Amino acid sequence: MVSNSLLSNWNQLKFLQYCVDSCILDVSQELGQDVMKLEKHIKEAFGAKWKEELCEGKHIVGKIEAGSPAVLVVAPSALRSIELLRGMRTLTKECHAVKLFSKHMKIDEQVSLLMNRVNIASGTPSRIKKLIDIEALGLSRLSVLLVDIHTDVKGYSLLTLPQVRDEFWDLYKNYFHQQLVKGDLRICLYGPIPNGNEFKCTSVELADGDREQLDS
User: Fold this and answer.
1) Structurally, what CATH architecture does the domain formed by 27-45+63-193 represent?
2) Structural domain boundaries in the chain
3) Residue 172, Cα to own-chain centre: how many angstroms?
4) Helix residue ranges per DSSP H, 87-150
5) Per its UniProt entry, which superkingdom is the organism in (predicted)?
6) Which has the closest alpha carbon to 112: 128, 126, 131?
7) 3 — pLDDT class (breaks 50, 70, 90)
8) Which of 4, 13, 94, 142 is deepest in the core (most CB within 10 A)?
9) What does the alpha-carbon distance between residue 138 and residue 66 come to, in Å, rounded to a whole number?
C-alpha cells in the first residue's frame, strides 16, 4: 500500500508537471505576483474578450449558464480567498464575485447567489466541491482555474496543508484533471512553484499496483 506522504508527493509532481506544460499565466517580472495586480494577469488570460467574460452582469438565457463562473479561484482559507478577490475588485463591480467557503457563510446563501450570473468565484476546496456535487456551482463556462500556492507563515500551502491538501486533490481529481488533460481548462499556479522558479521532475519509483492507485 502506498504511503500518504508518497501519494501526496506523487500527486503534486503530476499536477505541477501538467500545469507547467500548459500554465496560462507566465507571471512577468514587471507585474510580479502582487495580489493587487492580479486582475491584470486575468485580463491577459482572456485577451480581447476580457470585458465580455469578466465584467458583464446580464444573465443571457441559453448562452450564459447561471452559477457557472469563467474564473474559479481555489485557496487554502477563507481569508486568502477574500484577499485574492480584492485583487480583482474592479472586474466585479457589475457582476459581483461569489465567495465559496464555509466560514460565516451558509451553503443555502451560496446556492441562492449561484442562481444568478457569476463571472468570478473564489473559495476553499471542500465548499467548492460540495457546491459542485449538489449542482449549484456549474463548470460549463469555466475557462481559468487559479490555484493559490503561496505559503503561509508556517510554510504550508494549498498543496501541503494537511486536510486542505487532501480536499484539494479530491476536488481536482473529480472535476478538473480530465478537463486539463483535454485542453478544455487553463490553470494558473499563483505563487512560487516548489523547488525554485523552474519545475524539476523528481523520479518516484512505485510498484505497478501503487501507480495504478495514484492514476485511478
Assistant:
1) 3-Layer(aba) Sandwich (3.40)
2) 27-45+63-193
3) 9
4) 107-113, 125-133
5) Eukaryota
6) 131
7) very low
8) 142
9) 8
